[in-house]
Amino acid sequence: MGRMTASPGRRVLLAAPRGYCAGVDRAVIAVEKALEQYGAPVYVRHEIVHNKYVVQTLEKKGAIFVERTEEVPPGNIVMFSAHGVAPVVHEEAARGKLATIDATCPLVTKVHKEAVRFANEDYDILLIGHEGHEEVIGTSGEAPDHITLVDGPEDVAHVTVRDESKVVWLSQTTLSVDETMETVDALKNKFPNLISPPSDDICYATQNRQIAVKKLAEDAELVIVVGSKNSSNSIRMVEVALDAGVPAAHLVDFADEIDEAWLEGVTTVGLTSGASVPDVLVEGVLEWLAERGYGDVETVKTADESITFSLPKELRRDLREEAAALVADRKGTSGK
Questions:
Q1: Number of CB atoms found within 10 A of residue 291's CB
Q2: Where are the beta strands (DSSP E) in the chain?
């Protein structure tokens, strides 16, 4: 992309990595493939990923986003978002005679499996995460009788367990690494025998993007994070930037949300994006900044990312035929 003339001393530090992680890329492609393979409509329970632009783009292609499984008419296809769902949602889909595609991020699925395993071993599970987030709801639903939500260090004082020798912590994958470990430290002080999960629950992409933001904060007077207001990992990146000492940090969906007043006295702008943000939105911000003299762009690379995930296995089946058969079975016919 061509850059406009830079003003002397003004520059943009562009984080790398930024934007789409492997789980988001997989989920978005899964919706596009489903629409291509089965035709519209394809229903999606909740936003496939937390990004306004992505959701609007998929809606134009024929995706229909719903909040409840019951909103999907029988005989249709419903896709579960990258954030994962509780087992009860799969049961709702079966009762509703729906064919399903599970686009849950494999890293979230890992946390679900950990929850089930520790519940089967009768552990109390302390789930570090934000109340009401879809991922937390899905994970909690795997073992509701064993899981207690811990929403930050301030919650620790109120946590109780049945047996202090059988306690484990798990976490939402999109949290701030620093805040999560602060909560873990507080939990360990209260429960010295607390067990950590077999591997880090916070996803590689979340960690990489937070590390990159910290690097930007070393030189930038302003950090702009491109991402939606309901994106947990994007919100965390703003918080990480401020905690790292940058004077100002803001979250925007699109370039036209930037307030020119933010640029007053700023020579270096740090720019990054959340894990559910397509790079076209970052390009839009770069153009906006270039028009205001910030045409000198320097990439700040802190990690390489090469992880990819295969598409959901359901996309290899004829789900339209399966959905029709489910409805036919309910009517007492074979549907063949």
A1: 12
A2: 11-16, 42-45, 63-66, 77-80, 99-102, 124-128, 147-150, 167-171, 222-226, 248-252, 268-273, 296-301
Rounded CA-CA distance 286/4 in Å is 10
State the catalytic residue, choosing from 135, 218, 221, 239.
135
Q: Residue holding tokens 């990004």?
A: 51
**Residues 6 or more apart whose Cβ sits within 8 Å of residue 244:** 213, 214, 217, 218
Residue 224: name the closest of 278, 281, 295 by CA.
281
pLDDT in single tens digits along all 336 residues of the chain = 444 456 778 999 999 999 999 999 999 999 999 999 999 999 999 999 999 999 999 999 999 999 999 999 999 999 999 999 999 999 999 999 999 999 999 999 999 999 999 999 999 999 999 999 999 999 999 999 999 999 999 999 999 999 999 999 999 999 988 889 999 999 999 999 999 998 778 899 999 999 999 999 999 999 999 999 999 999 999 999 999 999 999 999 999 999 999 999 999 999 999 999 999 999 999 999 999 999 999 999 999 999 999 999 999 887 888 878 877 876 654 444
Helix (H, G, I), strand (E, B) or coil at 94: helix
- CB burial of residue 113 (10 Å; 0-12, 13-18, 19+): exposed
The single-letter code of the amino acid at 239 is E
Token pair belonging to 113: 């499996």
**If you write DSSP's letter for every residue of 31-86 in order, what string do you get?**
HHHHHHHH-S-EEEES-SSS-HHHHHHHHHHTEEEESSGGGSPTT-EEEE-TT---
Q: Which two tokens stand for residue 41?
A: 């409509």
Provide CB contacts within 8 A for 186, sequence distance 6+.
Answer: 153, 156
Active site residue 142: no
**Spatial distance between the Cα atoms of 104 and 217, rounded to a whole number of angstroms:** 32
Q: Are 41 and 233 in contact (CB under 8 A)?
A: no
Specify whether the CB–CB gap between 290 and 298 falls below 8 A: no
Enter the tokens of residue 327. 């409805």
